[in-house]
Amino acid sequence: MTAHPVDEKLPALKMATTGLQHVAAMYAGVVAPPLIVGAAVGLSPTELTFLTGACLFTAGLATFLQTLGFWKIGARLPFVNGVTFAGVAPMTAVVASTKDRSDALPIIFGAVMVAGVLGFVAAPFFSKAVRFFPPVVTGTVITLIGVSLLPVAFGWAQGPDPAAHDYGSPTYLGLAAATLVLVLLLRRFTRGFVKQIAVLLGLVIGTLVAIPFGVTDFGPVTDAAVVGFPTPFHFGAPQFQLAAILSLCVVMVVSMTESTADMLALGEIVERPADERTIAAGLRADTLGSALSPLFNGFMCSAFAQNIGLVAMTRIRSRYVVATGGGFLVLMGLCPMAASLIAVVPRPVLGGAGVVLFGSVAASGIQTLVRAGLEKDNNVLIVAVSLAVGIIPITAPHFYHAFPQTARIVLDSGISTGCVAAVLLNLVFNHLGRHRDDDEVTAPMEPGEEIVDRRTGPGPAVVGA
């Protein structure tokens, strides 16, 4: 019996290169939170490098849990796990409210551990919500995932520092456009293995092209140590503060909501639909990874949506490829110099490749919506309003500025708000009360056209009113 593509083991070279491509796609997302939080704490460059390496290391461990799994833990899908960006705002808020900055990271780590344990316990109950995710909901959420990630790619394309005078310069945008065109050409005019690693080749060639423009910085490689290990509790024993715990528990709920949506999206793409059991196992991996991450000085872990785009584009569905990527992340955590090689890739080059990756996620969502029964008025309304709600944080980032910070953790996530809106609207329109099968979108009637009553059959045409 032929193994499902998800369980396929590819040749070693192909496994390594495609796994590295997954690392390249998500690297910037993993290192951004520790860089932001570490800077807020006031860490030295050496300590900041340590914190970043620790987050890479724990991302690799969490990816192992998700892809390989054991017992009832792990979705066993090609799922990359890493530090969730949803926790950045509350973690920096914890830093700002801590008198002694040296206590900030231990307080954050303690809160993450508690949130992870509570999330692990709640995972099987949370997964039962899968029956409220029909195609009209999943298609909407998948589309929102892609649309929500595109601004990240656009930001990368403009340069590394929004405060710099050359941010958004023609040079940066030109490099992003060149990388995008290169990936498209490789996808169009190559075959087989080269076609499948088009994004990785685009990143390598784009980095080389950027050298004459002075955009490629090899400083991280020369300054990095060869070997380093994330010593447990390097920044101090975890501290447990109620306000921080409550704040990170809210982030955990947001993270679990997004992970559920991501698993449903990935299940559709790899043609192994995520059922209740799969989602429960995946959420256990997320939450267990989060609970263990602070032991090695890492933050809360969650599924990375951008890698779903890579799976959708390359059609390489093997979970062992992503597990190999997890191995690279662990090695990067143990070898700062290796980690710095990925850091050499200029942000504009990442931005050009990101347009393809994130756009592929949105396209997958549209494909799902095509099968969602949009000939029905109810489903059209569900999609229309949910997309509008989910796009608010993208098009109007300060829309919820008057709300409390805790509420904004949820409201500022378009994926979460759009997902909640889609589930609630689906309940109202398709589950509560009498279900109607004749709520179809109809074109304006032509003169003399018959009105058809589904219960009594064709009737005489009605002219006038």
From TrEMBL:
Subcellular location, record wording: Cell membrane
Any matching Pfam family: Xan_ur_permease
UniProt keyword annotations, A-Z: Cell membrane, Membrane, Transmembrane, Transmembrane helix, Transport
InterPro entries assigned: NCS2 (IPR006043), UacT-like (IPR017588), Xan_ur_permease (IPR006042)
UniProt superkingdom: Bacteria
Transmembrane segments: 24-44, 50-71, 78-98, 104-126, 133-157, 169-186, 198-215, 235-254, 320-343, 349-369, 381-403, 409-429
Topology with respect to the bilayer: Multi-pass membrane protein
Hydrolase listed as a keyword: no
Primary location class: membrane
Keyword Cell membrane: yes
Positions of region (Disordered): 438-465
NCBIfam families with a match to the protein in the record: ncs2 (TIGR00801), NCS2_1 (NF037981), pbuX (TIGR03173)
PANTHER family in the record: PURINE PERMEASE C1399.01C-RELATED, URIC ACID TRANSPORTER UACT
Family to which this protein belongs: Belongs to the nucleobase:cation symporter-2 (NCS2) (TC 2.A.40) family.
Protein name: Nucleobase:cation symporter-2 family protein
Organism of derivation: Streptomyces mirabilis
